[in-house]
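Renewal narrative, Specific Aim 1. Our central claim is that a sequence can be written position by position from structural information alone. The example that follows is taken directly from our test logs and has not been curated for this report. It begins with the structure tokens describing the chain, in the order in which they were read.
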């Protein structure tokens, strides 16, 4: 079937479900690549991938396209569910014969919800959906497709689960899909060089973090990886197709989970002479960091989450504050830049733990940071805990403009205080003389970076002003 893969329009500037772990409008304009959709699109010949948020496309822009396809696969997320349904219904009005399916984390854990929400949804794919969608696009009857929940007249049917992919080399490269369907200059991430390119070298994560979305919904707890040779081959292809790319980013849940493999990939990338960055848990040994640095590593995206050991234990982070400090000092010593991510409002949060985490962040001093509110996505352990303990304050994860809400509160710590602490965290971290001097020094050495930081600075101040108004 002629197939449309769609990351649907939602809120203006919303960095959504097809690639972003935190599905929200960020402090500065940011877009991750729709990697999950690109991967399955690579399996379906002559398909089309549209990333509506990154392109600035509206429902009205896309709805008429329904007439051109036989199958539409939409990546739906919890924060955008209502607009995702509206998009599906608009496509169906344009083409009553169009088959429509939902994929993504929400469909993985609650596949009946989209089918009950609208009669136009024919199926929802559960968990890992690459070969599920390939079979449907090839015309296999829905009754014979593993891993879906589908509509059979008035009945909702759950087919048996699909086995997870163990040989990740079965999946084709996403580079040709990016080249065919995306404008890579649309994709901005504040801490990565522009234009950048993002890809997965594996799926799943060995860690047991209670809040993390992909491992608990799609990827699983086993780190399944592509071979070192295949990773190097795809990066070489991307460099050929996109000579303007300044940085490659490996967006695995935790790229450094397998340190011998990380070192082997680094050495291959060193031979290619590319600049690259990746995700990391804050416990990578110095020797591995040095091998990666010596072979082109520029930056690590590091999930610290909190500077308080009790909270790290509560979320099953699997590391210690002293180890995180040592790891960060090692990165500083080696000249590896860190973008640190923190979450406020996790189980055990108090006024004092917020202060302690802010102090910790200033002490370890990553180059840049991101502060998020705890987001209890359906299907995660955090969501189940919040329901069981009556921590929820609102039913939605984002406001009507796509920005995060404080969805949880605790005895003695209301949601408003958690929400307000995000802006205070940012101010205390960035509005320090040393940090301002550091950023100015970076700008003085690179005019393109200077222009970018000035734009991001204006966006960031607007973000703080909007939070104050909210």
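The sequence written for that structure reads:
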């Amino acid at each position: 079937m002629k197939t449309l893969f769609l990351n649907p329009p939602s809120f203006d500037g919303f960095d959504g479900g097809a690639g972003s772990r935190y599905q929200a409008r960020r402090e500065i304009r940011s877009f991750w690549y729709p990697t999950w959709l690109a991967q399955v699109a690579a399996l379906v010949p002559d398909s089309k991938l549209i990333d509506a948020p990154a392109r600035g496309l509206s429902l009205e822009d896309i709805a008429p396209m329904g007439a051109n396809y036989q199958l539409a696969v939409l990546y739906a997320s919890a924060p955008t569910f209502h607009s995702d349904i509206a998009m599906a219904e608009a496509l169906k009005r344009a083409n009553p014969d169009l088959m429509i399916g939902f994929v993504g984390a929400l469909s993985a854990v609650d596949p009946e919800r989209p089918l009950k929400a609208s009669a136009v949804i024919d199926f929802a794919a559960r968990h890992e959906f690459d070969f599920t969608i390939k079979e449907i696009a090839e015309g296999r009857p829905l009754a014979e497709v593993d891993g879906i929940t589908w509509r059979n007249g008035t009945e909702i049917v759950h087919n048996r689960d699909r086995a997870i992919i163990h040989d990740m080399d079965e999946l084709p490269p996403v580079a040709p899909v990016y080249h065919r369907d995306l404008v890579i200059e649309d994709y901005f991430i504040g801490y990565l060089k522009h234009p950048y390119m993002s890809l997965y070298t594996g799926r799943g994560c060995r860690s047991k973090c209670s809040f993390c979305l992909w491992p608990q919904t799609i990827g699983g707890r086993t780190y399944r990886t592509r071979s070192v040779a295949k990773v190097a081959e795809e990066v070489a292809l991307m460099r050929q197709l996109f000579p303007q790319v300044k940085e490659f980013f490996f967006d695995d849940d935790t790229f450094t989970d397998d340190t011998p493999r990380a070192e082997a990939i680094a050495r291959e990338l060193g031979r290619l002479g590319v600049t690259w960055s990746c995700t990391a848990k804050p416990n990578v040994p110095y020797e591995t960091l040095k091998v990666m640095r010596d072979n082109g590593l520029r930056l690590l995206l590091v999930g610290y989450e909190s500077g308080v050991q009790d909270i790290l234990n509560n979320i099953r982070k699997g590391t210690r504050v002293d180890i995180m400090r040592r790891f960060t000092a090692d990165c500083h010593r080696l000249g590896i830049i860190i973008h640190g991510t923190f979450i406020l409002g996790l189980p055990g949060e108090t006024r004092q733990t917020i202060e302690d985490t802010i102090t910790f962040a200033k002490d370890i001093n990553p180059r840049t940071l991101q502060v998020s509110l705890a987001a209890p996505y359906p299907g995660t352990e955090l969501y189940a805990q919040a329901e069981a303990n009556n921590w929820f304050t609102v039913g939605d994860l984002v406001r009507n403009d796509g920005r995060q809400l404080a969805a949880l509160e605790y005895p003695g710590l209301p949601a408003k205080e958690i929400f307000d602490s995000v802006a205070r965290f940012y101010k205390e971290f960035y509005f320090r003389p040393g940090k301002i001097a550091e950023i100015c020094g970076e700008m003085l050495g690179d005019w393109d970076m200077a222009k970018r930081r000035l734009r991001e600075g204006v966006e960031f101040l607007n973000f703080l002003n909007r939070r104050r108004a909210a």
